[in-house]
Amino acid sequence: MNILVTGASKGIGREIANVMKSVGNVYITARNEELLKSFDCSGYFVCDLANEVDLVKLGDFIKEKNIDILVNNAGEYIYNPLEKISLEQLNHIVAVNLKAPIYLASCAILNMKKNKFGRIINIGSISGVMGEAYASLYSASKSGLIGFSKATALELAEYGITVNTINPGWVETELGKASIEDSEFTEEEILDCVPQKRYVQPCEVAELVKYLSSDGAKGITGQSINLCAGLSVGI
Ligand SMILES: NC(=O)c1ccc[n+]([C@@H]2O[C@H](COP(=O)([O-])OP(=O)(O)OC[C@H]3O[C@@H](n4cnc5c(N)ncnc54)[C@H](OP(=O)(O)O)[C@@H]3O)[C@@H](O)[C@H]2O)c1
Predict the structure, then answer these.
(1) Ligand 1 pocket, 144 CB below 6 A?
(2) In ligand 1, which atom is closest to the CA atom of 168?
(3) What does pLDDT average to in each consecutive run of 10 residues of the chain (235 residues)?
(4) Is the CB–ligand 1 distance for residue 121 below 6 Å?
(5) What fold is seen in the domain 2-227?
(6) 38, 83, 144, 191: least buried by Cβ within 10 Å?
(7) What stretches of 48-135 adopt beta strand conformation (E)?
(8) Ligand 1 center to residue 73 CA distance, Å?
(9) Comparing C-alpha atoms, which of 214, 235, 215, 211 is closest to residue 225?
């Protein structure tokens, strides 16, 4: 089994790459070569997903390595009132959070269709399910992944390919902590709104990715799965 995890230089992606080593050959990608190099796996590919030349090269790498499991994890967050969002920010967030996962999936399914097996797992966000004030761009890009997963799950169902989106709540990573710092709330106030009163840990997301990759999860497709310590249920 050949696996590619995007955004695997740190955070959730790093943990997914670690856990997925027990499933097959893991390839990782991100921008920071030093961090990629420091991880023991089958190979790495340096890529800025916002750069179209890099993106096309990564698509070719996916075709060359016959990727069976694609984990679209890389993502960027932006906290800004709508009227302050620039066209540049709009293009950047959509490119990294939505356009890249769609393009990479389009490259991966060639091999998956041939093998009548494949897994595409997108890491969305609870902000794409519930909406997050001042993070409209982020929320919109993550909601897009849910629609994309549903449509392609239908399109690819007869080929044994499943497509799902995992929507984490607050996860204890650099991005999770920085997005709290950007907000008007303290960490304590944020965690107090989480029913389980805690961060989700990266390993919890990784274990769900592993399960969705398994044969036992072949019936789960087109789903938007919230992994948020109860945040989406209410307070
Ligand atoms: N942490 C949370 O609370 C939380 C909650 C909900 C959803 N999520 C989602 O979970 C995913 C992982 O987040 P995380 O918390 O692990 O974030 P993180 O610690 O900031 O890691 C993000 C990863 O994405 C890569 N990345 C970012 N921009 C990139 C770009 N332009 N091109 C290529 N790679 C890029 C980073 O690598 P380089 O910097 O080396 O490029 C890094 O490996 C994201 O999609 C995020 O939206 C996180």
Answers:
(1) no
(2) 6
(3) 98 98 98 98 98 98 98 97 97 98 98 98 98 95 98 98 98 94 93 96 98 98 98 88
(4) no
(5) Rossmann fold (3.40.50)
(6) 83
(7) 69-72, 118-123
(8) 7
(9) 211
| Vertex 44 angle, CA 26 and 114, to 5° | 55
Strands (E), the chain: 2-6, 25-30, 43-46, 69-72, 118-123, 161-168, 224-227
In the structure encoding, which two tokens stand for residue 197, read together? 């009163």
* Residue 75 in contact with ligand 1 by CB distance below 6 A: yes
Longest dimension (CA), the chain: 50
Phi, psi of 12 (to 5 degrees): -60, -40
Cβ-proximal residues to 81 (8 Å cutoff; 6+ apart), any chain: 134
Residue 207 near residue 129 (C-beta atoms within 8 A): no
- Determine whether 138 is an active site residue: yes
CA distances for 73 relative to 76, 165, 227, angstroms: 10, 10, 14
